[in-house]
Amino acid sequence: MGDIKFEDDYIFRNNRMITSSPDIALTELVANAWDAGALHVNITLPIDDESKLSIADDGCGMSEEEFNERWLTLNYNRTKHQGKYVDFPDDVSNENKTRIAYGRNGVGRHGMLCFSNSYVVRTWKNGECFEATIEISSGEEPFKIVLRKKYDKDGHGTEISTFANKNVPDVKSIKEILAARFIYDPQFSLAINGENVSLASCEGVVKEETLETVNGKKLKIAIIDSTKTAASSQQHGIAFWVCGRLVGSPSWSYGKYQFLDARYKIAKRYTIIVQTEDIIDEVLQDWTGFYDSYTMDNVFSEIRGVVSKLVNDVMQEHVAELKKEVIEDSREELESLSLSGKRDISSFMDVLAENNPMVATEVLKTSVDAFVKIQRAKKGQELLMQLSSMTPEELDKLSDLLKSWDVNDVVSVIDEIDRRILVVEAISRIYENKEIDELHTLHPMVLNARWLFGAEFDSPMFTSNRALNTVVKTLFKDDEYDVDAIANPRKRPDIVCLKKATIRAVCTDRIDSEAGGIMKPDQILIIELKRGGFEIGAKEAFQAEHYVRQIKKTGVLHKSSNIHAFVVGCTIGDIDGHRESDSGIVDMVTYGQLVETASIKLFRLREKLGKHYQNLGDESLVEKALKEPSQEKLKFDS
Hints:
Mean pLDDT: 79
Oligomer: single chain
Helix content: 25-40%
């Protein structure tokens, strides 16, 4: 059985952040000094190629035996072997013996490998110093001790040093980073190249409170106003200090949680410090963030409430300035409103700003401009009521619609669809009713909706033709006319009214070269509508065929004319519903078939919008369906 071996880059691959980021590496080494009970830490950064990078502390130090156990154990579990709390040197007073250790996984000691592949550790206690030179290895061990020394030395502490040949940090930036990563402790000082680093103090605190999450985690909150302190802009955001150490960097977002837009003025002014010892187990091993967990969800939920309250409390002044700015920019439009209109605008801005104190100037101005236009509109108040009743999802859909479509285009499309669906819906409700005034309801709707009989007939080229209408009328005897059913016969010269039906004929015209270039009817559409509840039988079918033949024989048609006649009734008897001859085509159809065909041609919109049309009563529906647009009257009236 083979021996376990290590690649020569094992340490680097398994501790990538610590061994590649100088700020994290030095943070971990300072944290180790904290865990060793140090009160003073001094970092020496190289100023030339011959000087070393080192970090020294006055902590407990280690004996050779302790070094072998802790330093040479991969992922040494500090909590398991040494406990949760820090051990201090014997000469440190008792008041400082309540410090919680950062270390849990034994990776911080590899921080010096960020700067070189080897380093020297000197650690001393009880009058004896142990020194070891460590370098990267491979095969049986990922790193090894290449040199050991022991000699006398008073005091206690640890120093780690190396000649840095990579990732050499900048002195100024490291000072700022380390100052922001360790909370102020009067018993813990840090110096870089002999100059003390001013650790982040809590100056400028405007509010402090203690919260507790639903699962019992206590959070001490401090809100700091940067206008009252010298904190740099990079410190703004929410700073989580766990056991006295900063987790990651202050930020207004953590994972999936966005607490505040960093672009806002308030975000650039305030910092929220969260101090706790209760979520140490939620911190990532490299202290760059938190695990995604139920505990942190509860913590973030509490912090969201703090941020919301902060925004509401401190944004009143901002809101007042914002309102003043918008009013100045929109003064001309506002002056045109009535006194009540101006008051409405003022109330509108108050409500909008109170509900969304972080509203941007552009958003508020745009909203006010829109409100002014609504005030001027005849149906502005009605529109506001409609908008207020819409859900956020519906408002988003409306916004997306208006991004792609002009309002006038939307109205044109919806009017056309609505007109057609209204006709279909009205026909479906009344065609079986024998008592209804079909001449003035059912017939006008069907006769003016040629698209029901085929897409080829849905064209403004199909118009009434006096010569053709005269021919159709001559096919009937005087006593077959139902003149009494027409309120004003002069208004319907293109409709033949019979006792049990109405007939209408429309056509397109084309020049007939054999007739001296005269325009003659070319494609002819004949619609014979039976009264409500009527069944089409053999007699009606033969009669329609007769009309087609007689019309074909006249001299008013183009030599290559096509005639298509439809007989429409409530039901069809035991007859062939489709007939073709040299004269033309005759189809017997029901109103129900027209309704179904129309539904398909309208992409089943009638069914999808069923609730909308169901709310209309029969009388209201028919009334709307009979309201023809002016262009339709131009098409069909003689």
